[in-house]
Amino acid sequence: MRTQSKLYFYSAIGAVLLVIIAVLALNTGVYDFKGASPFNILWKYIKGDPDLSLNDKYVIWDVRAARIIMAILIGSMLSVSGTGLQGLFKNPLATGDLIGLTSGATLLAAIAIVLGGHFKEYLPEAVQFSLVGISAFVGSFLSMMLVYRISTSSGKTNVVMMLLTGVAITAIGFSITGFLIYISKDEQLRDLTFWNLGSLAAATWTKNIILAVVLIISYIILLPKGKALNAMMLGEKDAQHLGINVERLKKQIIIIVSLMVGTCVAFSGTIGFVGLIVPYILRLLFKSNYTFILPLSAICGSILLLTADTFSRSIVEPSELPIGILTALMGGPIFIAILIKFKKSL
Fold first, then answer.
1. How does pLDDT run across 246-297, given as a tens digit for each residue?
2. Which domains does the chain possess?
3. Residue 111 in contact with residue 184, Cβ under 8 Å?
4. Burial grade of 311 (CB within 10 A; 0-12, 13-18, 19 or more)
């Protein structure tokens, strides 16, 4: 009960901080509401005020509010996916972008963007609408399976093999994506640039609904796995003796993480290091207790990405800095710090 109380306490603090940052984000932007507060505009929109201008409605609801919600959802899923992978591989370097999941998702999404027009008409209408998203999930899932097969032997993961496999997948993805950029048309080139740099500028409420559904399904399955991941830290045989179905746990984490990473890449492009930064900071506070780390990473990931996105919109106003650049600048030093800390064990 004491553990649950501490978890609720830290979660409440994180939720309050997230609300404060969301309030600041809603007030950030170059659009002039002609002296009115963005919150007054939002409240008028919710009430259905007929005197509210179309421009004000669009900016406050379809641009700022939709973008804030997307940052919260994607930041949360990227963070939880990194935490789940680190628990599965028992290593702090196991994140979607470092072991090739993001590259695999980006590659198949790029193929769908550039070459999808040649075969899209032969697919069912529902598949046509979500072809990029489905492709991103398939790419993420195949990359995850390849990394797991190559780097794991007799229940143990070779960290060097895991990272090298990720490097190989990233290199292959980069080369093929480069070729697709070379043969793409202007409109396709803009889309590919969006995927490679990462951005939340294309946020819509339809995308947010899809993200929310994926998040709810994934968290129902993944968040209760904290005790199982704690048991996995002892080794797979010990975990089995404690009553953990190890193979089922592996399959669930692989599929759920692939689903989350693939969906995030489909809607926001490549946003790296979120799944590395948040678990690393939480691990400093709570050691490797996944009962705390897993649910708290869901909140802290939202805080990190929403903060980064708010900065990306305000640093070079009226232009926008791609959010993937900011997260890479934050994550690079932490990645080096992890390598230095664990260089002997690695």
1. 888 888 888 898 889 988 988 888 898 898 889 988 988 888 889 999 999 9
2. 2-341 (1.10.3470.10)
3. no
4. middle
